[in-house]
Design brief:
Blueprint: H1 7-15, E1 20-24, H2 28-37, E2 41-44, H3 48-51, H4 63-76, E3 82-85, H5 94-107, E4 113-116, H6 123-131, E5 136-141, H7 158-162, H8 165-178, E6 182-186, H9 190-199, E7 204-206, E8 216-220, H10 221-225, H11 242-258
Parallel strand pairs: 1-2, 1-8, 2-3, 3-4, 4-5, 5-6, 6-7, 7-8
Helix pairs in contact: 2-4, 5-6, 6-8, 8-9
Length: about 270
């Protein structure tokens, strides 16, 4: 039987120069499929609020909702290494409150580690959670939420981010020193991304604005396979377009029902 994935194994993968694959999953079915496909880690993102529940912002997602989503992912992938996003609104609870919430994600949500967004502005929270024995995936880099810190979203381009490589390297080292087990570097760019990856001993995994210069990549499952209503016409290159397949299937179902034909599925029960 293959050895179960762990944070320690991810860190060894970095030392062995083996790329890490992380998939953002929100529920049982996606978790089961992604884990079976061989993802090294599943990430329960707070973007579940926007992409699954139709919220306007990640700030609207509560701790209880993250626990619920994480438990569904755990049921779908009982043996997976699972990270759960810490609700952004709860980061104002202070170190003691943040540790209590992180413990809820681990003990009630069955997560193996927690991800802290905007961690470069709150390394003391990363330290508090890590000291409580909970592994932390610390996110930093340029996002719409913290763009002012780096002079605006325009600086997310690879060329301009290179000018801030030294600052980003220092932030990465700070988070590593605070006890982070992994880093999530957003909008890294090939210059700053490579510099940060070489500067720290812990894995650097990136989603938006990442690339092969990092230790691994994280991709939202729904986006990767086109299971988004926007995938019907946005023209983005994906590994599949499940939205188009689903639209065609539902249209065919409607045609069968309206034409008085038997719909496809399990055999009709005879009475």
């Amino acid at each position: 039987m293959p050895e179960r994935m762990s944070v320690a194994r991810l860190q060894q993968m970095k030392r062995d120069a083996r790329k890490i694959v992380a998939v953002v999953a929100y529920e049982y079915q996606m978790a089961a499929i992604a884990h079976r496909a061989g993802a090294d880690m599943l990430s329960v993102g707070d973007s579940v609020g926007i992409n699954l529940w139709g919220f306007e912002s990640e700030f609207d997602v509560t701790l209880d909702q993250m626990v619920l989503a994480c438990r569904g992912v755990r049921r779908g992938a009982p043996d997976a290494l699972i990270s759960c996003d810490f609700p952004i609104a709860r980061l104002n609870d202070g170190p003691d409150g943040v540790v209590i919430a992180a413990r809820a994600l681990v003990h009630e949500g069955a997560a193996n580690l927690v991800k802290i967004d905007g961690a470069a502005t709150s390394p003391h929270l990363v330290q508090a959670i890590a000291r409580a024995g909970i592994p932390v995936w610390a996110q930093f880099g340029i996002t719409p939420h913290n763009a002012a810190r780096y002079g605006g979203m325009a600086n997310a381009t690879p060329e301009l981010t290179a000018a801030m490589a030294d600052q980003l390297v220092e932030e990465a080292k700070m988070l590593e020193d605070a006890g982070a087990s992994l880093l999530d570097f957003t909008n890294s760019g090939p210059i700053a991304g490579a510099a940060v990856t070489a500067a720290v001993a812990i894995p650097v995994i990136g989603g938006l604005g990442g690339g092969p210069w990092l230790d691994g990549r994280v991709r939202m499952g729904y986006a990767a396979i086109g299971y988004l209503a926007s995938a019907l016409e946005d023209g983005v290159e994906r590994y599949a377009n499940v939205a188009r397949t689903a639209l065609d299937a539902f249209a065919a179902l409607a045609d069968d029902v309206r034409a008085g034909r038997q719909i496809k599925g399990p055999p009709t029960v005879k009475r």
